[in-house]
Write a structure and sequence with these properties.
The complex is a heterodimer.
Chain A (H helix, E strand, L loop, with lengths): L28 H4 L17 H12 L22 H7 L2 H4 L11 H18 L3 E3 L5 H18 L7 E5 L5 H8 L3 E5 L9 H7 L4 E7 L11 H10 L3 E6 L18 E4 L19 E3 L11 E5 L2 E5 L15 H12 L5 H19 L15 E3 L7 H10 L6 E2 L9 E3 L7 H16 L2 H6 L11 H6 L6
Parallel strand pairs in A: 2-3, 2-4, 4-5, 5-6
Antiparallel strand pairs in A: 1-7, 6-7, 8-9, 10-12, 11-12
Helix pairs in contact in A: 3-10, 5-10, 6-7, 11-13
Chain B lengths: L8 H11 L27 H12 L21 H7 L2 H4 L11 H18 L3 E2 L6 H16 L4 E5 L4 H9 L3 E5 L1 E2 L2 E2 L10 E5 L10 H10 L3 E5 L18 E5 L15 E5 L12 E5 L5 E5 L6 H4 L12 H39 L3 E2 L9 E5 L3 H10 L6 E2 L4 E5 L6 H14 L1
Parallel strand pairs in B: 2-3, 2-6, 6-7, 7-8
Antiparallel strand pairs in B: 1-9, 4-5, 8-9, 10-11, 12-13, 13-15, 14-15
The chains are: A alpha/beta, B alpha/beta.
């Protein structure tokens, strides 16, 4: 009965945990609170024993595929192996039990981890100043664009109302621009799927605050004109922001600073192997140039002599998280970087090798809209008459997690494949073999897929029309 | 070769041949400007060496002592089963459940999380969680602006966690202060152009607030009432939905998440059914599959950034699925009675401490106000008291900077620790 809810497995009076016996006199709540404040009805929560809880959530977990169970080439998400040493690091009681408001003097180990990680990310990006506080990539974007906004306010420049995004951008980019109070305008692409520099030149003016570029872009293609793009923006007094979701393609091969990027975010949960956890928690650290550094979120960590301190940057936009950010993810990323050092370049090399191998093997059967060197991911289209959705569902029956589909939006029937560096040639060959087989599978059979998964295809319209989001 | 890459030299050679290039460098022929140097990072460590370093750094923190700090993050018991479940690779290493056929584990756990939050808050619909409590607060502020079609300007109790206020300011939400009167908020001066009225209960100073009064004041000016609540407290305090709150948000950390120096935690958000289209973040709903079998799926996706782009409710993409799962497992283990017991134990211990503090001749700032597990004690020199506490092996409370300490007590504190706290503080002042 895999779909019974935990609440349906209980019985009134059952308990799954025992608390310590009281060692002080128990207070009647009625004696310390006004009657109106007291809860009338008990919440209808599960009343279950621990064995039932463990069995329920263990069985549920078996309805999930993760990197641990299968190849997971979800483009733009960098589903690489999550080393268990990172989890061991995050379980160390001296970190896990540390309260965020303990004074700096009581948290020097944690501050040192943060300070060193700031330095590592500065080195990987070439951008000297780092904040680890944003809690996810999208928040890293927003933090960056709010910093740009504050820069112009500080400079007394009230004309900057527009943020440009390429048509290949992640949906978070235009959403971020709106949230920060900018109009977002879309820039078109050239024949390589890259930002059309001529079009950009025409669009950039004194109202432009920034361009949000992803490099390599979401087609997996390197933005070869990035330096020129930076020049166009800088001439107009605007900033170049880089969405660093795809940094797995760049480490040790390209540093955003040398391309004159002004500010960028990292996804520690992509590039630096912290687990995705079914959609979070993440960490969207940002790195920026000297010009934007005074606007970084409050606080950042600085070292003075042998001691580490939290410091509020001079013109900070303020804080974006309740405390210092997702420290647990910082610790994991720190550990990952310590286990790689300068070999991070090999990570990038192998990720790019794997993606190009998949490109080379699928080409001919699958259409490759930008059939040239790709970086860490490749966008392909199913053979004529087939749909990305059907191929994706077909992959599920062969035990794979499908690639990202219908993104980037500029490619019809897009399938964005990101193998990552942690997959072997055998895994890739098997996957390629399956993809080629699915290309030959009849449409009727594909439309039936999946038939071997925990569920068949779902009625998504019904979920929205007859919304039921609780027991 | 890097640690977690399986390729042998022979693999690399074969693959380069298949691609039609000679060297790995050739794969970066299109990259400009190229980085030619070697990254200046510390030398590679083995797993053992890296973890030994982590252990050494952990010793530079003060940890493992009884903690009297709260102020938004609480040192509560985390049952072992919580860690066991959230460490399972099937939960740990999957992405957002975009492919529901192979993500029912995550999806059902989100559905159960939403159900638990709805039950605790007394509101019809909850989302799948947001980054943390502070971000739940700011998302609620923006939500009230969309719903009332007013500018994001909100009236906030002076008892709202100051960090939540700071995040709202960063997000350009205009704040109007509502003063405290003996520890509870005076709602008599809510301006008529605000989109929301924010009340935290128990508030930052530990005092249980009158949510009914807040919602009446909000509705008077056709604004929405947002109540910010510690989820553990909702096992004993009336559900905000029953007291007229339109939105309930808060920090889910007390539900089974370790302190971890401030994160990862999870923010929760719940609201009335009629407001669901303005609720940001992921929502999981029930449906059926092609064979009519019950299943779960992310729904009302039209609100979200990847579909709606610039017109989305929020740029939010990540939820906190894994920490939300921790909260779900915690709540299942505890059940309604266990949650209530956590609340009652904490409250009893806190009142025991407050009574001893009072007996020792120290002054409580709000002696008449109702409180659960946090209170403010006035001390001439908080620094000195905290130093003395640390010498005695205790992490003291939060220095409020105005001659007072905010003290939190959880079910973990023993009577001996409480007695020691009073003795040390009384001697230090």
């Amino acid at each position: 009965m895999p779909f019974d809810l935990i609440r349906d497995k209980g019985r009134e009076g059952r308990r799954g945990y025992t608390l310590p016996k009281p060692d002080v006199e128990m207070k009647e709540l009625e004696s310390v609170l006004p009657k109106a404040a007291l809860r009338g009805e008990k919440p209808r929560l599960a009343e279950v024993d621990e064995p039932t809880v463990i069995r329920h959530y263990t069985n549920l977990s078996r309805e999930n595929e993760g990197i641990d169970t299968t190849f997971y080439p979800l483009g733009s998400c960098t589903m690489k192996h999550n080393p268990r040493a990172n989890e061991a690091a995050a379980a160390v009681p001296g970190f896990a039990g540390l309260h965020p408001l303990q004074p700096e003097s009581q948290a020097q180990g944690a501050l040192r981890i943060m300070h060193e990680l700031q330095g590592f990310l500065a080195e990987v990006s070439g951008l000297p100043h780092v904040s680890l506080q944003p809690l996810a990539g999208a928040q890293g974007e927003l933090t960056s664009i709010l910093m740009v906004k504050k820069f112009f306010e500080d400079a007394g420049d009230e004309e900057r109302t527009t943020v440009l995004v390429p048509s290949t951008a992640h949906g978070t980019n235009p959403a971020t621009a709106s949230m920060a109070g900018f109009k977002s305008k879309e820039v078109g692409l050239d024949e390589h799927g890259c930002v059309d520099v001529d079009e950009l030149r025409e669009m950039v003016d004194e109202t432009t605050a920034a361009l949000m570029i992803t490099n390599p872009n979401t087609c997996g293609v390197y933005e070869r004109n990035i330096k020129e793009i930076a020049e166009v923006l800088h001439e107009a007094g605007a900033f170049l922001y880089m969405d660093g979701a795809n940094m797995n393609a760049n480490m040790g091969r390209m540093r955003p600073a040398e391309a004159n990027v002004d500010i960028m975010h990292f996804n520690l949960h992509k590039t630096f192997s912290t687990p995705h956890g079914g959609g979070g928690p993440g960490c969207g650290a940002i790195a920026c140039s000297e010009d934007l550094a005074p606007f970084l979120p409050d606080p950042i960590v600085e070292k003075e002599g042998e001691a580490y301190h939290f410091v509020r940057p001079e013109k900070s936009i303020g804080r974006v998280a309740g405390f210092h950010g997702n420290f647990g993810q910082m610790l994991r990323a720190w550990n990952y970087i310590r286990m790689h050092g300068p070999d991070l370049r090999d990570v990038t090399d192998m990720a790019v090798l794997n993606a190009n191998y998949v490109r080379a093997q699928l080409g001919g059967t699958y259409r490759i809209p930008y059939d040239e060197l790709c970086k860490h991911e490749v966008v392909v289209q199913p053979p004529q008459g087939k749909k990305a959705l059907d191929i994706a569902k077909g992959l599920i029956d062969y035990g794979y997690h499908p690639p990202t589909i219908y993104f980037p939006l500029v490619v019809k029937e897009a399938m964005l494949i990101e193998p990552t560096e942690t997959e072997s040639k055998e895994t890739l060959d098997d996957f390629i073999g399956t993809m080629l087989e699915l290309a030959e599978t009849s449409q009727e059979d594909l439309e039936e897929a999946p038939t071997h998964a925990p569920t068949r295809r779902l009625d998504e319209t019904r979920a929205a029309r007859q919304l039921k989001a609780r027991w | 070769m890097a640690r977690f890459t399986p390729h042998t030299e022979a693999d690399v050679k074969e693959m380069l041949e298949a691609i039609g290039v000679d060297t790995l460098d050739d794969l970066f022929a299109d990259v400009s400007p190229k980085y030619e140097g070697e990254l200046d990072l510390p030398e590679v460590l083995s797993e053992y060496e890296a973890l030994r370093e982590v252990d050494a750094l952990a010793k530079e923190n003060v940890a493992g002592l009884p903690i009297f700090l709260g102020a938004g993050a609480y040192d509560r018991i985390v049952p072992s089963a919580v860690g066991a479940i959230i460490s399972r690779g099937e939960y740990l290493t999957c992405y957002t459940p975009y492919q529901p056929e192979i993500s029912q584990g995550t999806l059902q756990s989100i559905f159960e999380f939403q159900s638990m939050i709805s039950e605790l808050t007394g509101l019809e619909i909850s989302n799948a969680s947001v980054y943390d409590g502070a971000n739940a607060v700011v998302e609620a502020a923006l939500m009230t602006a969309r719903l009332t079609k007013r500018d994001p300007k909100v009236a906030v109790s002076a008892g709202l966690n100051p960090r939540y206020r700071e995040v709202m300011e960063t997000y350009r939400v205009e704040l109007v202060d509502l003063p405290l009167e003996n520890g509870t908020t005076d709602f008599s001066s809510v301006p008529d152009d605000v989109s929301g009225v924010f009340v935290q209960s128990p508030n930052f100073f530990g005092v249980v607030e009158d949510i009914q009064a807040a919602s009446e004041a909000a509705h008077e000016v056709e604004a929405l009432c947002v109540s910010v609540c510690d989820p553990i407290s909702l096992s004993v305090l009336e559900a905000p939905g029953k007291l007229g709150a339109d939105v309930a948000v808060g920090e889910a950390q007390p539900l089974g998440m370790p302190l971890m120096f401030g994160g990862p935690y999870a923010g929760y958000m719940a609201t009335k059914q009629e407001f669901v289209r303005q609720l940001p973040g992921r929502i999981c709903g029930e449906t059926i599959d092609k064979d009519g079998k019950l299943a779960y799926v992310l729904t009302l996706r039209g609100r979200e950034q990847d579909i709606r782009r610039a017109r989305a409710n929020s740029n939010i993409c990540t939820n906190q699925a894994l920490t939300a799962l921790a909260a779900t497992v915690y709540a299942a283990l505890m059940g309604p009675e266990g949650l209530r017991e956590v609340a009652e134990l904490s409250t009893s211990k806190t009142h025991y401490l407050a009574e001893r503090v009072d007996e020792a001749g120290l002054k409580l700032r709000y002696p008449e106000a109702p409180f659960l597990w946090e209170f403010v004690v006035e001390l001439p020199d908080v620094d000195k008291a905290n130093e003395a506490l640390l010498d005695a092996g205790i992490v003291g409370g939060l220095d409020l900077g105005d001659g007072a300490m905010l003290v939190a007590v959880t079910e973990k504190r023993t009577r001996d620790e409480l007695d020691a706290f009073v003795e040390v503080v009384a001697n230090a002042v």
